[in-house]
Amino acid sequence: MKYKDFDTEDFLQDEFFITWVMKPGEETNHFWKKWLEKYPEKRRVVDKASAIIRSIGYEDERVLSDDLYMEMYENIIQKEETEEVKRGKVFTWDFWKNLAAILFLAGCFYLGYEAINTKPPKKAIETEMVKRNNPAGQKSTITLPDGSTVHLNAGSALEFPDRFSDSLRLVKLTGEAFFDVIKDKDRPFVIISGDNRVKVLGTTFNVKQEKDFSVALVTGSVEVADDKGNKVFLKPKEMMVKEANGMIFKKEFDPLEVIGWKDKYLVFKNDSFQEVRRKLEAWYGVEVHNTITLPKDWSYSGVYYKETLGNVMEGISIASSFQYTIENKTVTIQ
């Protein structure tokens, strides 16, 4: 795939791009300057990817810089001398030998410079993006290329490369998922969800992106950041919530309520009718229609483990004194 077709996630997986951001040099600066002049519409994507890379903090790699070439060149120049004799200048054998070395190094430097700036080095390994989508009523467990496990909730999607790079493990989440990440201190694990980023090394936690964004940490530690520069660190049993209006706060959480879904627990805790309907539709892949008027303060609490839709509706209807019907994929409250 050409750079002009890259999005943010593609740039975050590209080693040539990462090297430029973390260790810019004359050659890479020249290439990306020319490339952005040709594709100015990609600047916003490039700037976003660059900001994410700097916030993640890749390990610096030792590379041979252009300064070394210039230092070698200058040392040879300083050694060059001309000998003065009574009847004029005499060019010695040492002079010609040094001049040949200078020309050889200059030629190598020029050819190397041109080769690098003509086109970037080819990627050693081509990667393909893998997409997993769960419709309403369906959950799945996914094993990532590094062995980490993801429990993907209903109505959610996960995107990741078929192999991670040597410096980063990056995935993109829409909806909700529980992650069990294998520890790798040399390769941070980063989840992009909306304009939020969750960075970990090895831990277990839940990420949910709906109207609000939340991260609930079970073990280990995580760093949560967004495009506005906000950054929050979590400890086990802490949960960060970012509301739709941008307000951010931390709190403790009930593991059964927040992550019980991955173990097939359907939990209602003082939920409004809108929240009950949302959970039923996502869990069972149905549509819920209400034909009666419920009290404004109506709420419901209950815990169900591997229960059928009929049994759950029976429990809710008894507690709330209403009738219901189930026909195909439609639940009608009456």
TrEMBL record:
Keywords: Membrane, Transmembrane, Transmembrane helix. InterPro entries: FecR, FecR_C, Ferrdict_sens_TM. It comes from the Bacteria. Residues 265-333 form the Protein FecR C-terminal domain. Residues 136-223 form the FecR protein domain. Pfam families: FecR, FecR_C. The keyword Manganese does not apply. The chain crosses the membrane at residues 95-113. Gene3D superfamilies: 2.60.120.1440, 3.55.50.30. GO terms for molecular function: sigma factor antagonist activity. This is DUF4974 domain-containing protein.
